[in-house]
Design a protein that fits this description.
340 residues; alpha/beta; TIM Barrel; eight-stranded parallel β-sheet; 10 helices; disordered C terminus; binds succinic acid
């Protein structure tokens, strides 16, 4: 499927599709369903310096659309990852990105230093944005200076490409994107989960022990797409889109928004074979659209603009559509909101 190959920083990828951190084990646990060689790459579950038991249960709960998690970065620590996981990852036959997390700037640096010599790892994804530790305060994902500092320190500790995983839970994501680029990031992952919560009003109990957690699934796709676009238009480094992707058309929307690759996460919980199907579906969709190289679409968003006074405006064709879009189209034609 030559039409699917892309580059992400210095990484040459067979296609733009990755598993998202924390949704797919370290990647090989699912190889009986999703052979890694079908994918552009795998992103590991977050690895921390010391083992972490994670947050108390319940730490996953379903909502009307998508689910909430507050796992709390449960993992067995970097030494177990090196000893038990990486030898097999070296035979994955695809790009391996190790996601690293920490509570202090020094933790990230130390992890990059420890893992820098591991040939099985092609790049690091720095998890600046886990909402389920430090009481959801997101210290690294909300303060551009802190985010840049973490990236600088990781860069100093490794020669591998470094991606910064950002949070949607900020008001000006472009400030964070610009900061991590200045800190030396080779790329950005946009975005982690959206802060959310659930309540059972009968028992008055929250759905999660930690009350709030990270919301994911197809409902967050419009938020994630906007975040990815905001990052892509603010920086020169490549962006990996993440959030609510379930089908090939979703992948292409993120590419048109400016992403060079994407990650698929929560969709694998409802159908673990999603990632196995996506590359073929993407290829077929491009073929049906007469597109021979997926890279043509990257950053190809056509931003609407008002005609300049010197441009003659042709009258809009009459809208003959039937169905639920009718009201939206009519309202747009009148320049108003569909619901007003
Ligand atoms: C978690 O382990 O709590 C989720 C990881 C993340 O959202 O970064």
């Amino acid at each position: 499927m030559a039409r699917l190959s892309v580059e992400f920083s210095t990484l040459a990828l067979r296609n733009p599709i990755f598993s998202a951190s924390g949704t797919f084990g370290h990647g090989l646990e699912m190889q009986h369903i999703v052979p890694p060689t079908l994918l552009g790459g795998l992103v590991s579950k977050t690895v921390t310096l010391k083992p972490r038991p994670g947050n108390p249960l319940p730490r996953i709960c379903e909502t009307e659309a998508g689910f909430l998690n507050s796992i709390g970065l449960e993992n067995r620590g970097v030494e177990a990852y090196r000893r038990d996981v990486l030898p097999a990852m070296a035979r994955a036959g695809t790009c391996v990105i190790t996601n690293i997390g920490g509570e202090k700037v020094e933790d990230f640096e130390e992890l990059a230093r420890i893992l820098d010599g591991e040939d099985a790892i092609h790049a690091f994804e720095v998890n600046l944005s886990c909402p389920n530790v430090q009481e959801g305060k997101l210290p690294f994902a909300t303060d551009p200076k802190m985010a840049a500092r973490v990236i600088e320190r990781v860069r100093a500790a490794t020669r591998k490409p470094v991606l910064a995983k950002l949070s949607p839970n900020v008001s000006r994501l472009s400030d964070l994107a610009i900061a991590v680029e200045a800190g030396g990031a080779h790329g950005i992952t946009a975005v982690n989960t959206v802060l959310g919560m659930k309540i059972d009003w009968r028992t008055r109990a929250p759905g999660l022990f930690t009350v709030q957690g990270g919301y994911s699934g197809m409902a967050i796709k419009p938020i994630a797409l906007r975040c990815a676009w905001e990052c892509a238009r603010s920086v020169k480094i490549p962006v990996m889109g993440c959030g609510g992707i379930t089908c090939a058309a979703d992948v292409l929307e993120f590419l048109v928004a400016g992403c060079s690759a994407v990650q698929v996460g929560t969709a694998s919980f409802s159908d673990p074979a999603t990632l196995a199907r996506l590359p073929g579906e993407l290829d077929a969709l491009l073929e049906s659209a007469g597109i021979s190289d997926v890279r043509e679409l990257i950053g190809s968003l056509r931003i609407p603009r008002l005609p300049s006074p010197s441009e003659k405006v042709a009258p809009a064709p009459a809208n003959t559509a039937r169905g639920p879009r009718e009201g939206v189209d009519a309202a747009n034609a009148l320049g108003g909101a569909a619901s007003s």
